Amino acid sequence: MINNSRSNEKLPLMEAFYTIQGEGFYTGHAAYFIRLAGCDVGCHWCDVKESWNENLHPTIAIDEIVAQAEKHGKLVVITGGEPLMWNLDALTSQLKQKGIQTNMETSGAYELSGFWDWICLSPKKTKLPTQSVYDAANELKCIIYNKHDFTFAEEQAARVNKAAKLYLQVEWSKKDEMLPVLIEYVKNNPKWAISTQTHKYLDIP
């Protein structure tokens, strides 16, 4: 359930850092990442499971989060955990008032809140996106762990809005096995593009 009352003033923050976006449409762009804590989607291959329990992380005033973001360029990516567990209207409104571009990475499992320049929807089988996120997503990024995930990706592509850019990305631990399969799939289905976790090749956060 979205906690509207607490998130209007503070948000549970796992970490925030300035780096290069490694995935999707904005690959290669400098960005300040705000990783909010809290997630009940439960992806077994999640590489930030320490973000799941929001009670293990401090709640930080939105004003303070924005003040830190303002020091690091003009592009912010809000991620998680699952950021839409929280009402993001206040955070994104303040960021935009500072002239900062607001991007989000979400599973879409909760109703959309916030004011966004770009939404990357990365849906998960365990808790499917809400229609509000399907309708607003700028890009659809589906993670390929096994061959069945191509079927899931096509199901999600049929539900997302027609303007969304479509990406397939191999789950990192499966890249040796599944990347050749993904390459052939995209060659045969060119509506998709490949997203690569370039930040891992660059050895940066």
Automatic annotation (TrEMBL):
Residues the record lists as binding S-adenosyl-L-methionine: 45-47, 81, 122-124
EC number in record: 4.3.99.3
Radical SAM core domain segment(s): 26-205
PROSITE patterns with a match to the protein in the record: RADICAL_SAM
GO MF annotation terms: 4 iron, 4 sulfur cluster binding; carbon-nitrogen lyase activity; magnesium ion binding; S-adenosyl-L-methionine binding
UniProt keyword Hydrolase present: no
Binding site for substrate: 20-22, 35, 79, 205
Protein name, as recorded: 7-carboxy-7-deazaguanine synthase
Organism annotation: Paenimyroides marinum
Gene name in the database record: queE
